[in-house]
Design goal:
Strand order of the largest sheet: 12-11-10-13-14-15-16-17
Helix content: 40-55%
CATH class of the largest domain: Alpha Beta
Distance between the termini: 56 Å
CATH superfamily of the largest domain: 2-enoyl-CoA Hydratase, Chain A, domain 1
CATH architecture of the largest domain: Alpha-Beta Complex
Largest sheet: 8 strands, mixed
Shape: elongated
Number of helices: 23
Strand content: 5-15%
Structural class: alpha/beta
Oligomer: single chain
CATH topology of the largest domain: 2-enoyl-CoA Hydratase, Chain A, domain 1
Number of domains: 3
Radius of gyration: 27 Å
């Protein structure tokens, strides 16, 4: 099956070769696409009857990036650079018609064209940094020449796509097509041809990079030094964009290729690509019918206004979902509200959130002392103390007030979901939704299925995770589920180091040097020392007594607090520890 087809459109003036990329299911940039696209461009360029070219994806969907099935493989044939060189060198106007997602290598192909048009819903970006790579086919060079170094740094180091309207404003696209994409692209192409516009090679542009301030690059390196510590790709992106502003195109282009190859050879790239695939695999649930429609969640509730509960409420509010926040008294609600407001204020101060969005999110969070107020919500997440009796009591109250079909979720990090569900008359509606601290920041959400959790509840909770920006992993109902089973072993070894003379801050520094964003002991402080104490107390009943066990953890909450708070004293204040 051919992945690129060519037809000549001569219905309204100049004959235009329409090159359609059709590589199901998403039109990814595979080796076959590169080879056939190169041949099609060369053939159209050599055809005297052809006066211009339009590149478009089947179904109006452009190339969303490289074919993940080819990641890590050595393939013979033309590279993306070869294809782009042929496009840019074509003596006839070449227009990219962008729809769906024009990402990664797809956007690089478009940047090699002389003009670009896009549908209003198209997303454009270079997300390679998310898999430990940099754009390797001129993306750091051509995008910088179109939008300037500041915008290029923002787009490529974060990997976040922009909308077609924003792309029009900053110069990535030349026109937004509101109607049929192909018809609009053909009309645009003929207009460029009829007006005898000179071919615009992005690689030859210099107006947006002339006089770039070197301080821009020093500033981003300084600001991101902590976040990028140990990471190769974002630092090489800055190097390449800096080179784009300071060196001739060919020289800077070679620097980009060398940086790309460095990243490609790095174990970071291999690990992040594995993670990329693993996250997608985790979304597939064996035995769950593809026809099962998730239940929409239009309103939510959280029981417990502590650090964790407040963070969970923020997750719903950030996604535009109204949320009730319940606690036992006005003082607890006030503390929870104050912490939420403090978190939002910090985001506004960092520039990651606008004041308008903060106000909108805060308006969606309503405090209450009355369980009855939660009754009409589509989901409720319990975030009370990590104590079985407390959680069972909460679920008995929820069972009495929640509407039929509501999802009853527990944020427990270790307790038996089935025992919690047994406190209700509808155990099939009970599921684990284990957020990680701080809940409004951490991407992972463990969805824990009980013995008789209904398939609809599982599907709905997994879909909700995506809505609120989480990466969901489905777990069985085992002690510690997945994350805390791993953490228990990791933490045990760290505690042994304390016994052998290391200090908490030495252990944390070693872990951060290895690549962890945070050491174990600071993480324990942030999660809440009482949470760890309750988990150890619960596990004591079935702990394997034949295995070595650290007394620094076994000696109770006070001892753990004395050990772990030392790290916080040298790093940052301990957050409120209520779970």
């Amino acid at each position: 099956m051919n992945t690129v087809s060519t037809r000549i459109d001569a219905d309204a003036g100049a004959a235009v070769a329409v090159l359609t990329i059709d590589n199901p299911p998403v039109n990814a940039m595979s080796m076959a696409v590169r080879a056939e696209l190169l041949a099609a461009v060369q053939a159209a360029a050599a055809d005297a009857a052809v006066q211009a070219l339009v590149l478009i994806g089947a179904g109006g969907k452009f190339i969303p990036g490289a074919d993940i099935r080819e990641f890590g493989k050595t393939l013979a044939g033309p590279s993306g650079r070869d294809v782009i060189a042929a496009i840019e060198a074509c003596p006839k106007p070449v227009v990219a018609a962008l729809g769906g997602n024009a990402l990664g290598g797809g956007l690089e192909i478009a940047l090699g064209c002389h003009w670009r048009v896009a549908t209003p819903d198209c997303k454009l970006g270079l997300p390679e940094v998310n898999i430990g790579l940099i754009p390797g086919a001129g993306g750091t060079q051509r995008l910088t020449r179109l939008v300037g170094p500041a915008k290029a740094l923002e787009m490529i180091t974060t990997g976040k796509p922009i909308s077609a309207r924003e792309a029009l404003e900053c110069g990535v696209v030349d026109e937004v097509i509101d109607g049929d994409l192909l018809a609009g692209a053909l009309a645009f192409t003929r207009r460029m041809f009829d007006e005898v516009r000179p071919l615009r090679k992005v690689s030859e542009r210099g107006d947006r990079i002339s006089g770039a301030d070197p301080a821009l690059f020093a500033d981003i390196r300084r600001k991101q030094a902590k976040k990028w510590q140990g990471l190769i790709a974002p630092q090489r992106i800055v190097d390449c964009i800096e080179a784009a502003c300071q060196r001739p195109f060919d020289e800077a282009y070679a620097i980009e290729l060398a940086a790309f190859n460095e990243c490609k050879a790095s174990p970071q790239r291999a690990a992040l690509i594995y993670l990329f695939g693993a996250e997608r695999e985790a979304a597939k649930i064996p035995g769950l019918s593809a026809d099962l429609a998730p239940q929409p969640v239009r309103s939510a509730a959280v029981v417990g206004a502590g650090t964790m509960g407040g963070g969970i409420a923020m997750c719903f509010a950030n996604a535009g979902i109204p949320v009730w926040l319940l606690d036992a008294d006005d003082a607890a609600l006030a503390r929870g509200r104050a912490l939420i407001e403090k978190n939002y204020a910090a985001s506004v101060e960092r520039g990651s959130l606008s004041a308008e969005r903060r106000g909108r999110a805060l308006s969606l969070i309503t405090g209450t002392l009355d369980y009855a107020a939660l009754g009409s919500c589509d989901i409720v997440v319990e975030a009370a103390f990590e104590d079985m009796a407390v959680k069972q009591e909460v679920f008995r109250k929820l069972d009495a007030v929640m509407k039929p079909g509501a999802i009853l979720a527990t944020n427990t990090s270790t307790l038996d979901i089935d025992k919690i569900a047994a406190a209700t008359s509808r155990p099939e509606s009970v599921i684990g939704a284990h957020f990680f601290s701080p809940a409004n920041v951490m991407k992972l959400l463990e969805v824990v299925r009980g013995a008789i959790t209904a398939p609809e509840v599982i599907a709905s909770t997994m879909a909700l995770a995506k809505t609120i920006g989480k990466t969901a992993v489905l777990s069985g109902n085992a002690d510690g589920f997945i994350g805390n089973r791993i953490l228990a072993v990791y933490g045990r070894e760290c505690d042994f180091l304390l016994e052998e003379g290391a200090t908490p801050w030495q252990v944390d520094r070693a872990l951060q040097g290895f690549g962890f964003p945070m050491g174990l002991y600071l993480m324990r402080d942030m999660a809440g020392l009482d949470v760890g104490w309750r988990i150890r107390k619960y596990r004591e009943q079935f702990r394997d007594k034949s295995l070595r066990y650290s007394p620094s953890a076994a000696s109770g909450r006070r001892r753990a607090a004395a050990i772990t708070s030392t790290t916080a004293a040298t790093a940052r204040p301990t957050l409120p520890s209520r779970h």
